[in-house]
Design brief:
alpha+beta; Aminopeptidase; 4 helices; 7 strands; globular
């Protein structure tokens, strides 16, 4: 199954998404993000996702990735505001459950979330910050049309050093201010 033939639907995050979030909270799937979160932090993350998806101010949204035509929830994706190098931008991130990886689902979901971020009409740039050694997520960024601006040192979770790539996608010159960005 290629990225061109895979079909997904993004469903806004809701209270019933917690089981999917828990299923993605495994050592294997969280290896690039400091490992699985404890239950209390996972519950807080879920509530943040619910709140973000209920907010219609353009600050972002979280979604369940539903594989079509099977109608199976297979992952999580979203976009949210953040400060980056003196500007307000959107950040995106995703996770696809292990049995569904390697099918182009993350790339298809990223293409769909780009449309959502553009439709919000708030920020010009969408960034993704995968770990430099996360080959799969870096490949998704490349396939989705992001520009690699370079690597930088970060912490995630706080206190855990992480070397990440900064990938940027221009959502359109008519969206948000054209502020200086890393590498520009």
């Amino acid at each position: 199954m290629s990225a061109q033939t895979v079909r997904v639907r993004l469903e806004p995050w809701s209270e019933d998404g917690f089981a999917l979030l828990r299923a993605a909270n495994t050592p294997e799937m969280m290896a690039h993000l400091g490992g699985p979160e404890p239950e209390d932090l996972l519950i807080r993350r879920h509530q943040r996702y619910v709140d973000l998806s209920a907010d219609r101010s353009g600050t972002g949204r979280m979604f369940r990735i539903v594989l079509l035509p099977d109608e199976v929830p297979v992952g999580v994706i979203g976009y949210w505001e953040r400060a980056w190098n003196g500007a307000r931008v959107y950040e995106t991130g995703w996770v696809v459950l292990t049995p569904f990886q390697g099918r182009g689902i993350a790339t298809a979901a990223t293409a769909a979330v780009l449309q959502e971020a553009r439709a919000a009409r708030k920020h010009r740039y969408l960034h993704a910050f995968p770990a430099v050694d996360n080959a799969a997520s870096n490949a998704v960024c490349r396939k989705a049309g992001f520009e690699l601006l370079g690597a930088y040192d970060d912490e995630y979770p706080p206190g855990r050093p992480l070397r990440s790539n900064d990938w940027r996608l221009d959502l359109g010159p008519d969206l948000g201010p054209d502020l200086p960005q890393r590498g520009a």
